[in-house]
Predict the structure.
Amino acid sequence: MKPYIHCADGRIRVKTKSLKSSRKANLLCAHLLEIEGVEQASPNTANGSITIKYDTTMTTESPILSSLSAKLGEQVCSDHDKQPDFLRPQQPIYAASAKADSSQVTNQISKGIAARAGHIAIGVLLEKSIRYSMSNLFGIR
């Protein structure tokens, strides 16, 4: 059975047949809690799932899913991982951290704003093109 994964901000749910074993699910939860930023890992052996809650300012879903893949011995990726790079959110910004200086934070914010502005512009152009084509097709002015 291919794992089912649902990711939302700060929360991941993974469901796979191998998690119906309470021993394996509990060991995996203990392992997940060792990852920096993971706040909670709750197994549900009745349906073979684990719900993981994490701090989005400290980590992203990628290292958590990579760790799950390694421990479960099967590929675990969300539909989010199949998105093109420009649609994926960037790594978290560590504004109050020694990991990033102000120019890195500013650069990262600028890239995010530019990407969103580009998506909005493309959406507006596409909508206007469709309206124009439809009005010409049906002779509506």
Observations:
- DSSP finds three helices and four strands in the chain.
- Strands lie at 4-8, 11-15, 38-44, 49-54.
